[in-house]
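Intended use. Records like the one below are meant for learning the mapping from a protein sequence to its folded structure. Do not use them to infer anything beyond what is encoded.
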Amino acid sequence: MFDGDANAAGRREARMKKDAQKETYTNKVGFGSGFTPSSMPGPAGGNGGTEQQKAAAEKPAFQFDASKVGTGSLFTHRVKAGRHAYEIEIVCQLPLEDMAANAGKRSLTWFCADDQYTVVVPEGFDVEALQVLSDDFATGRCSVSVPVKTRNVFA
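Structure written out for the chain above:
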């Protein structure tokens, strides 16, 4: 940094090492655990990739499925992120006892006798204006809709 600074080389080396760590490839992303830049299909890769990688490269890079399904120990949930609402359907193997909404954390929590399950609602949806579509707690089913926040452009 400054002329005559004895620690400048060490700081530069530490910064370069930190930058290199950010750019490393992991098995959490890409075409699979064996993904490296040289195995990438197309002109960027060295060997053209495997048949599976070539087929994956022909598909669109990102496909959004509005209906997602997740599971917990006793719970199963289905989420549909629409333009005007975020709909959540919860199914529990035991009867549901209660549901709580936390607007600060943007989360909805369902409780049964042995477990609880929390779904975090993305930003842009108004948890305080929650609408319950169906609440069959005896059979362990509940459906809710969280509308989009209304914004006043003149405020």
